[in-house]
Specification:
heterotrimer; A mainly alpha; B alpha/beta; C alpha+beta; A: mainly alpha; MetI-like fold; 3 domains; globular; C: alpha+beta; four-stranded antiparallel β-sheet; two-stranded antiparallel ribbon
Chain lengths: 404, 365, 411
């Protein structure tokens, strides 16, 4: 099937040979129709570009510069930033290590990450001791990358490093949580900005995914109708109502339902939002994982049976690794969706980055800057989610998905 | 998507809900009597203790209503409502800074209070029967007597509500003004379209864009927003008509009378202090040497070398000392926050009763 | 010990014990919740929990006291009951969802095919569209569109009137009126003979179906083309034309105009026609564009998943590119598209709930307001949950029957 693509690649040819970008660009002026369409669309594209550039240079960006601190961390006190930085350092190092181990970023990914760091530095540069922190993160990421690449030669070192990396990824969130609450910590009502979006999404993913595994297993368990019905009911009821409804439920009904152990019923909004997002994410992720479990050929289970593996051994060694590998793209999509959905928390008075923006452009000094603020916040989200999907594509390719 | 699962899900939800209802119904009498008999009290019941344990008062405010509660650039809150939060904190802790302000919207304030997320709600909230009975809230005392007004662009020809037949009116979600608007236009046989917003910020954007012909809320709120209107206060005009009675005041949850008493008497204390001429300027002198028995009772000190009378309020007899030192009396709070909005106190309902207004404190004795 | 092990491995007992434990756990948690809630009932917050032991929906019969805007069909006012207000909100949600499904599907199809286009710039533009729009939160896009709608539309006093003309002759004056109070388009006004029209149409349909069946039988017996489609269609449309001549049109169209009221006529509103509010428009555009980026990926994936032989055969038959797309590729891609499309539609319906952010009176809005006026959060929340579950159920049954039909008939 893999013949050389024909120079004139129609829809048919692309379906046949797989899509190549050069196919289309090679024939900008192939026929008269092509020429006409190319000219028209080029003019439109130039007009759009000129309009956008014009707007960008005439827009009032002062509000972004003035508000960069709230955009980043909300009301979080400056002298408490030491609670946030170490997590970000480790994140940088892990990013370097992981990309060295599994990704070997391509040109586009590298550009995206560089752009991300540029934006970050733009945001941070005037905060206390930020220049040092930023340099440290860059250094750690680079060091991680170099170490990981060097380690490729020796399989034993590589496996050690990858184990450590995975373990640190898993422990990163608990570590950050401990740091954020230990001692005389600022209350969570001081949390804000993009920090809240990232923390909420990260916790919902890290805690929600194991819950999702149990739910999906429960839903596909033969011979245990009680468990199956309970899992199914949970998944379908949660998926039945929009996130907004669950967030309201979490804010206004949960306090009455939570038991008073450890003062859980006194828990603040962020904590309750976390519970809602964890369960919400778990229900959706469970369905994704179930798809992966169903895709495993029956022969695999039969083989595991004949090897004498028990249920949990089969899960650990056979079905879950394959299921996760199969659904990785959908899983990343689910996580991206969750990250975007964290903007809805403003409805229950959590001041996330979008809400910081909305408050900013409603201030008297910044009236009429709504579009600037919204475009800026949109850009932040775009950067993060686009990087996530770029990374997922890269990992997919390196894991050899679809080519096994 | 698999329908059969969905069907079962719905069925299960309904069944679960029904069984919950049945069990709860049958369970109700037993548990009610049981817990009364055992004196089994939930920790929420003692709000004062909860607040003391926490070390900070959680106070629900608006946060975007200049003059009442407004977030400042340095992260602090200013305003009439914010000062009453500080007064309650001063009474409880002797330190008016021990307040954690929680921003609420018109639509979520009661749930925020009911769920225990805040200890007291001081968010220019109107006292109504249904909020007492349906929503199970207790209003302490009106701190501000207001009425619903209508604000229009200054260059529009509207003078009365009758001029506004067919108008689009911007209103906040979950407010009494939303309900009044409906009944006022219904009574006058006028048609209108309500555009309802949860936040005032978005409402202002809509109004700026000419999306609505009128903007309605309490007159004080209108004055407050007019003061910070992007096109300047002169671009707006508030109609003379007053559409309702809006007594605004602090409120607490039903079921904790001790806590309610504290909030109510801190409020009354500020009225009483003004009436007796005690302010933050002379409170220290008055503590040392009270002018009258009434002042001595209010400040919890002995008169002319006599003993202190403790009237049993759970925060002790001297609760008003910190309030007056750190926050001030009603007149001072009003002067500082409301007067800059251009709302004259003289001759209004918010004058002291001795000046023909409604600000009146039952005796502190 | 070995007895115990063999007992455990006898699957019947194992299943019973494990499931018994799960059921016990669920029951215990349920009891704990009830205990919790009834404890609160006594002391903490009577507001919420008074609604628990006496779960009641009576309060929904009370007068709503609020007006919901953006409603079209059920014209409710503040004198109607709270339940009416919630149903009106639900109707607004359904209306939004239906419009969105049509809009997002068409746009998604265009973009999806566009990404596989021959034309480099079109294909690039579609790729950029997808990569940008699906990576920005829907709520933010709604804000952006809402700001844009206000930004570009004039106040109603200076509304833009768009006429449809053909070589200078006005065919339809005020076809579209645009202002910040919304978009007004002509709409149908029913005439008194509409009922008679429906009756006639129904009779004509039945007759033409009977004729078609008869002709089909004939064709099966005799072979050849007996005009099984042509004659019934002729009968049906012939009857309609006769009805038009005899009865007049079943409905007329009415264009919108601007009506003044209030002092000095300073308040202007649309009169007649269909008015689409700026809020509705912002949500449709924002959510439609957002969801279209996902639908386009489904379309693209389904097309790429087709076996190459199909298009090769079509090409061998001499079909043009357009014919290949509409006759061969899309109908087949539809089969793989329908299940994921159904999921997207359900997601989008749930996503319409974020419309409360700009004050659109959907079902979430109505329930929130009523809960704020009357308490009873739990009952109201359950109502909301059931309404959304019903909507999801309806969408998935429609999509499932569509799927069944497509798989069976193999269009």
């Amino acid at each position: 099937m893999a013949e050389t693509p024909q120079p004139r690649a129609s829809l048919l040819a692309r379906i046949q040979h797989g899509y190549r970008e050069s196919d289309a660009s090679a024939q900008l002026f192939k026929t008269k129709t092509h020429t006409v369409i190319t000219i028209i669309s080029a003019i439109t594209a130039i007009w759009v570009l000129v309009t956008l550039t014009n707007w960008m240079f005439n827009a009032e960006w002062q509000v972004i510069l003035d508000k960069r601190r709230p955009f980043l961390v909300g009301k979080f006190p400056a002298d408490q930033m030491w609670r946030i930085w170490p997590g970000v350092w480790i994140f940088g190092a892990l990013l370097g290590l992981s990309s060295g181990l599994w990704m070997r970023p391509g040109k586009n990914t590298a550009i995206t990450i560089a752009a991300g760091i540029a934006i970050l530095s733009f945001l941070l540069v005037e905060l206390d001791s930020t220049a040092i922190n930023l340099a440290l993160i860059l250094l750690l990421a680079l060091a991680g990358y170099v170490v990981a690449v060097r380690a490729q030669d020796s399989p034993s070192v590589r496996s050690l490093i990858s184990r450590v990396t995975v373990a640190t990824w898993v422990l990163l969130i608990p570590f950050m949580i401990i740091l954020l609450f230990v001692g005389d910590a600022p209350p969570t009502s001081y949390w804000g900005g993009i920090f809240v979006n990232v923390m909420l999404a990260a916790i919902a993913i890290v805690v929600g995914t194991p819950v999702a595994v149990f739910l999906s297993l429960g839903r596909s368990l033969d011979g245990y109708p009680a468990i199956r019905i309970a899992s199914t009911a949970f998944i379908e009821v949660v998926r039945g109502a929009p996130l907004i409804a669950w967030l309201f439920m979490g804010r206004f009904v949960l306090p009455f339902i939570l038991p008073s152990w450890f003062g859980m019923n006194e828990a603040d909004v962020i904590f309750r939002t976390m519970i809602v997002l964890i369960l919400f994410n778990a229900a959706y992720t469970a369905e994704v994982i179930r798809g992966g479990l169903q895709a495993i050929p029956k022969g695999q289970y039969e083989a595991a049976d004949s090897l004498g593996l028990g249920y949990f051994q089969t899960l650990r060694a056979i079905s879950l690794p394959q299921a996760f590998r199969a659904v990785l793209p959908s899983l990343i999509n689910q996580y991206i969706g969750l990250f975007k959905d964290t903007t809805l928390v403003y409805l229950i008075s959590v001041v996330d980055v979008l809400e910081v923006g909305r408050k900013a452009f409603n201030e008297l000094d910044y009236t009429g800057t709504a579009l600037e603020v919204l475009v800026f916040v949109g850009f932040i989200f775009w950067l993060v989610t686009f990087s996530m999907s770029a990374i997922s594509r890269r990992v997919e390719a390196n894991m050899g998905l679809g080519s096994r | 998507m698999n329908i059969s699962w969905l069907k079962r899900g719905v069925l299960l939800a309904v069944l679960a809900f029904a069984s919950l209802a049945v069990v709860a119904c049958s369970d109700d009498d037993d548990s009610a009597s049981a817990s009364t008999a055992n004196g089994d009290s939930h920790e929420h019941a003692d709000t004062l203790q909860t607040v003391k344990d926490r070390g900070v008062l959680k106070c629900g405010i608006s946060g975007s209503l200049p003059g009442f509660s407004q977030l400042e650039a340095d992260g602090s809150y200013t305003g009439f409502d914010a000062d009453y939060c500080r007064a309650v904190a001063a009474a409880v802790f002797g330190d008016s800074s021990k307040v954690e302000f929680v921003e609420t919207t018109g639509a979520n304030r009661f749930e925020t209070l009911a769920s225990g997320e805040v200890d007291v709600l001081i968010r220019n909230t109107t006292w109504t029967l249904s909020r007492d009975s349906d929503l199970k809230q207790s209003f302490a005392a009106p701190t501000f007597y207001d009425g619903q007004g209508m604000m229009v662009k200054a260059d529009s020809p509207f003078q009365t509500l009758e001029d506004m037949d067919g108008a689009t009116i911007c209103v906040n979600q979950g407010t009494t003004t939303e309900l009044n608007l409906a009944s006022q236009f219904l009574e006058r046989g006028l048609t209108y379209t309500a555009l309802t917003f949860e936040t005032t910020d978005l409402l202002q954007e809509a109004f700026l864009a000419g999306r609505c012909d009128g903007w309605t809320t309490d007159k004080s709120g209108l004055a407050s927003r007019r003061g910070v209107y992007p096109e300047g206060p002169d671009a707006l005009r508030i109609l003379a008509v007053t559409m309702s009675k809006e007594p605004l005041g602090p409120l607490t949850r039903h079921g904790d009378d001790e806590w309610f008493d504290i909030v109510a008497w801190v409020t009354f204390g500020t009225f009483q202090a003004e009436e007796l001429g005690v302010s933050s300027a002379n409170v220290d002198a008055q503590i040392a040497n009270p002018d009258s028995v009434a002042v001595a009772l209010m400040l919890g000190v002995g008169y002319d070398g006599g003993d202190v009378t403790d009237m049993g309020l759970a925060v002790g007899p001297q609760f008003m000392q910190a309030v007056l030192k750190q926050v001030g009396n009603y007149g001072e709070i009003y002067e500082k926050n409301i007067t800059p909005l251009g709302l004259e106190r003289e001759g209004s309902l918010n004058a002291l009763w001795t000046n023909g207004g409604l600000i009146y404190s039952p005796p502190i004795r | 010990m070995s007895n115990l092990v063999s007992f455990w491995y006898r699957s019947f007992y194992r299943r019973t014990i494990i499931q018994g434990a799960v059921i016990l756990l669920v029951v215990l948690v349920g009891l704990a919740l009830i205990e919790q809630v009834s404890n609160i009932e006594n002391v903490h917050s009577p507001r919420f929990s008074s609604s628990i032991p006496f779960i009641t929906f009576d309060f929904l019969d009370a007068r709503a006291g609020i007006d919901l805007s953006h409603g079209l069909i059920f014209d409710i006012d503040s004198n109607d009951s709270r339940m009416d207000a919630i149903l009106n909100g639900a109707w607004n949600t359904i209306r939004l969802a239906v419009v969105l499904i049509v809009f997002a599907s068409l746009l998604g199809l265009l973009i999806g095919v566009g990404r596989l286009s021959d034309f480099y710039l079109i294909q690039k533009a579609c790729t950029i569209y997808v990569e940008v729009l699906r990576n920005i939160p829907a709520l933010l896009q709604i804000y952006i569109w809402y700001t844009v709608v206000w930004f570009i539309t004039p106040p109603i006093a200076e509304a833009a009137h768009i006429n449809i003309s053909f070589f200078g002759a006005n065919i339809l004056t005020d076809a579209v009126i645009v202002s910040n109070k919304g978009l007004a388009i002509p709409w149908f006004v029913r005439e008194s003979q509409l009922g008679l029209w429906f009756l006639l149409g129904f009779i004509a349909l039945v007759i033409s179906l009977i004729v078609r069946r008869f002709l089909q039988k004939r064709q099966d017996e005799l072979g050849g083309n007996q005009g099984t489609n042509r004659y019934p269609a002729l009968i049906f449309f012939g009857a309609l034309i006769l009805a038009y001549v005899g009865l007049g049109a079943p409905f007329t169209t009415e264009t919108s105009s601007i009506v003044s009221s209030g002092a000095a006529g300073a308040i202007k509103n649309y009169g007649g026609g269909m008015v689409i509010t700026g809020e509705f428009l912002a949500i449709v555009v924002a959510l439609g564009f957002y969801t279209a980026s996902f639908i386009s990926e489904i379309v693209r994936g389904s097309i790429l998943a087709l076996p190459a032989g199909q298009t090769e055969a079509a090409k061998a038959l001499g079909l043009s590119a357009y014919q290949r797309l509409t006759l061969i590729i899309l109908p087949q891609a539809l089969r793989t598209m329908i299940p994921p499309l159904g999921n997207q539609y359900i997601n989008m319906t749930k996503n319409t709930s974020i419309a409360v952010a700009i004050g659109f009176s959907d079902v979430v809005f109505a329930t929130r307001t009523i809960s704020n006026n009357a308490g009873h959060s739990l009952e109201i929340f359950t109502t909301l949950l059931v309404l959304y579950l019903l909507m999801a159920l309806v969408i998935s049954s429609i999509m499932n029957s569509l799927n069944w039909y497509v798989q069976r008939s193999g269009i």
